[in-house]
Write the structure tokens for this entry.
Amino acid sequence: MTATTPTYREGRIEPPPMPQGRVEIQPPPPLYAGESMASNLIMTAIPMVGSLASVIFVAMSNTGPRGMIMAGGFLVATLGFVGVSVWRAKSGKTAQITSDRREYLNYLRTIRELARTAADQQRHHLGWIHPAPTALPAMAEDRTRVWERAPEDPDFLLVRYAVGPQHLGLELVPPDSETIDKLDPVAASALHRLLATHRVLHDLPTAVALASFARIEVTGSEDAVRSQVRALLTQTALLHAPERLIIAVLAHPSALPEWDWVKWLPHAQSRVANDAAGPRRLVSSSLDELVDLLPPDLHERPRFSPTGAVAAPHVILVLDNVMIPPGHSIITDEGVQGVTVIDLPDRWDELNDDTRLRLHLEPTAHSDRVQATAVVMRQEPVRGYADQLSIAGAEALARRLTPLYAGEGPAREDALTATSELTDLLGIGDITSVSLAQTWRPRPPRDRLRVPIGVGADGAPINLDIKESAQQGMGPHGLVIGATGSGKSEVLRTLVLGLALTHSPEILNFVLVDFKGGATFAGMAGMPHVSAIITNLSEELTLVDRMQDALSGEMTRRQELLRASGNYGSLRDYEKARTSGERPDLEPLPSLLIVCDEFSELLSAKPEFVDLFVAIGRLGRSLGIHLLLSSQRLEEGRLRGLDSHLSYRIGLRTFSESESRSVIGVGDAYRLPAVPGLGFLKPDQSSLWRFKAAYVSGPPKRRFGGAGALGGTARHEALPFSTGLVTSRLEHEAASAAAVAEAAAAAAAAQEKRSTFDIAVDLMEGQGPAAHQVWLPPLDVPDTFDQLMPDLVADPVLGLVSPSWRARGPLRFPLGTVDMPRDQKRETLHADLSGAAGHVAIVGAPRSGKSTLLRTIVTGLALTHTPREVQFYVLDFGGGTFTGLKDLAHVAGVGTRAEPDVVRRMVAEVIGITDAREQFFRAHGIDTIETYRARRAAGDLVDDGYGDIFVVVDGWSTLRAEFEELEGELQTLAQRALTFGVHILASATRWMDFRTGIRDILGTRFELRLGEAMDSEVDRKLAANIPIDRAGRGITTTRYHFLGALPRVDGDSNPATLGAGVVDLVAQVAACWRGPAGPKLRLLPTRVLLSDVRAQAPESTEVLLGISERALAPVGVDVAHEPHLLVFGDGQSGKSTLLRTYMHEVMRIYGPERAQLFIVDYRRAHLGEFPDEWVGEYCTTADQTTDAIEGITEFLQTRLPGPNVTPEQLRNRSWWEGREAFIVVDDYELVATSQGNPVASVVPLLAQAADIGMHVAIARRAGGAGRSYDPLITALRDLAQPGLLLSGDPSEGTLIGQLRPVPAPPGRGRLLTRRSLDVVQVPVAPSAHGS
């Protein structure tokens, strides 16, 4: 047998169990199947026949008396044997039958006891569920079961109406046995009596489901019918709350006194109309009046359906001897969902609708009980004895229920289902009129950091005390776990607001952390208690490490403050000394509550953050730091021992039972209903309190005075309490006063749409001392120089300058803001380039702000120095960002990758200045650049025309790739540059872009966001935390984040308008500077006349070939030591012009008696250019050239030194006399062809040309020169003779030395000699033809 009960709502008293299950009864024993009498006689007759034969044999054998005696003896023995056998068989059968019957009857006795026990349990269970009408007033007096049924309960609207027979809940299953004639009749009869007696129980409560019928007709005599309905209504009213059930009575005027008791029922009070006695009573003789008092939604309810949705509240409408007009909207033939009509008709017909139930009552003949028959169409009638209740009994019940109803709901309503106001729990009343002076008054130690957060099951406030257990608290640290929709955020808001309203900022501060960035802490920034609000960490994980630094910095700050104030061991000792007057000089040190929402996701993203939580858990007690962690789930594997520090736990509704157990030790939190704010508080290991959190996110309750308040004196009047309308002479006055107050409250509510939380925050904003800021906002908005230098002024001598920064010394300037979260402060990022850290390196990925930071450095130097003191040479390979600064007075020049000549000239200029300054220092006895600066500033006539020079290279990788030769020169320059006041400011995308030789001397380093954090040379972890979308953010070598300033002084921090800001900066600097502009870059001219070159070097004995880019001075070759010249270039690159200049220079150095020109010019470009006295041969064809060259070589061979030449003659070249031969070949590619080379005969003499006075100058087109082999050109290359490489295609390869041709303007080329490599501009010699 098993016994189970239905599942009832939590909080309801469980009824006694209802027996259920099956008992299969064993069959009775069968009839005895032993030997029959006939078989026994047959078995006895056989030996008897043998005995008779023996008797006959003995009698015949022994005649006489002896034989007769012996025969008689045998006969007697035989008969005795037969008799004994028959008796023995009969007695054995009887014993067996008796044994079987005894055993089976004992078994039935056990079943009978089981059935009686089950019957008692069933009777007890049904008596609990459906109590007798006479017991109802006592139950109402006890109140433990009043209004216990809810719509989710299985017995909702299941109401007793009679007692009658019912089957035993424990099913007695008869056996499947043989027919009755084959069973033992005694046992079978006993089984039949058992089943007939115990399978059906009599006088058990019989109930009807009111929601299953649209109409219930109760017929019979008037007294019995009304008594039956009274029993129905009173049981329904006792067990169902007024907000779930409405009882209304529509009766004939003559029958109204029978229903006067209903006025005491809370269920019969109207929700829509009041009179002087309170809510109107739902007892009337007028249908229209009663309908007006019923809920207005009854007209909108659908047609009745037994399987339809439950409508609330359920309405029971009693009709007593009234006629309803056809077509009424509520009392219809089809019925209305959620409405049950109990009709007491005076006549009735046959039922024709299965939604109707008829209870027919008849008196019994031999008792005072009333027989009830329940009839439903197409179902068997159910009979029993009707419940009867007198008017006195009904009124006794109703009067006991009256005081339990307070108008808006039952006075005993479960506190966990109601919504409580935090202001009510705090006892401050109306939030709009709160006095912070009162709520923030000093609290006794026991109430410090203790605040109510909700109400318990008994309606009493539930307080959360975050103090440590040594101070009778629950803390110092806690945990809140709740699934989505459990009210977790509201609990946190309630707690924070409650603590803020009851503690001043001098006592308590908050750090509010929301990893996801939800609305949990929205609107709290205005509270003076807030030290930090940190949100949206999930979208920017880099801030997590910053928050970790800030919180650990706060712990350090508190430790240092306690130690410095007197080596106090804890915040409690510190505050005790401060408040007791022992140390009045101490500043208040408030406790700090750190609330972290979604901490599990925080630990999932940053597992190492748990170490900080553990440190706070360990040290927070003494430092006054309290930790409250909140999350949807609890992942114990990530806590690493943190859970041992979480002393109090709040478990709201969880996702699983295991999570509930891990939080509060039991699985009850998982089974909580889906009501936000409902949960359990576990303050210690032995207690568990259920509570409902207060609500602060909604508008406050409207509070206004009643009518009596208007008059100043309470006014009372004795009024009758009846079912009809009750009026009062004070009614109009009270109604008017209430209307006025209601209108005022409605107007205030219309104007005030803020929530309780918002009103409280607005009330506290600006009150009390501001909290110490633990968290400063991230570096998002860059500074401008008018913010970094608030004292910028237009000085008539110095221009636009910051006096304070200039007073700090040379080359010291600000360039941004440094974030120091661990120290909870920010400082101005400044640089000092006056010493060993004078070179600057900026490394960052593309679009990370490198160019802007370089411009910021330039701007910072320009606003602290005059154009005379600093000059900038800018190599702008970053896309032209320095274009806006080219007009700055301090900028000497800007060169881009599209201007290679400007770039080379700039590097050459700086190198030249450095070389000149080195000689200048030596000549004037200057040991360092500091001495030079000091003497120059003092007015000592020590000035080379330049101040500190800054070479700005924006894009070092471009320099390496496209100006490889310049990189080496700058690297060499950087080794010695700082000694002479020359600085390198370089940017690159990777540290590897700098070669080791220069990377090591870049002393000032700024690392912006890198493409790969592993490449960081400062700190890889910090580099990974630099935001991606924040240009200008980086880290310093001291491992702090910084944000570079914008190079502007207009106060606009928008990077999108930086171009306009730079233009404004240049304009303001130009307007304020009244002195001469700084030195500007001198560029190599694109056209220069030979006369101008000669004017710069009138005494030169060299063949001047152009102006050097490096020194902007004439450069040439000494033909006495380097007799030959090799020229390559494309068409129109200036080859012929160079040869003409070359020959004019020969004419300048040598007279016609000392030199002779032999010109090979197939294109006749030099025809008529030179006097005949200078031209030995002018060859324009191959034959002519062959004859001339062979003649020349034969002649020159005679000048070869013979065996008689002395060493002195060799040194002086005095063994021969005559003119030197200058063989000039233009367009050599036309001369040396596949048919032959007319000038090839000079090759053997090239090596001894200087001794014999032979000079060869060849100009050839660059195209194809690298792919062809020519003995003459090869010999000149091997002899390392000077070469000039004009414009050409780089794909031709190396043509002279290691030089490749590059595109260049006409006349621009690179001259390679044994002494140097110079970029030159070939001068234009005057032409005899005027071109």
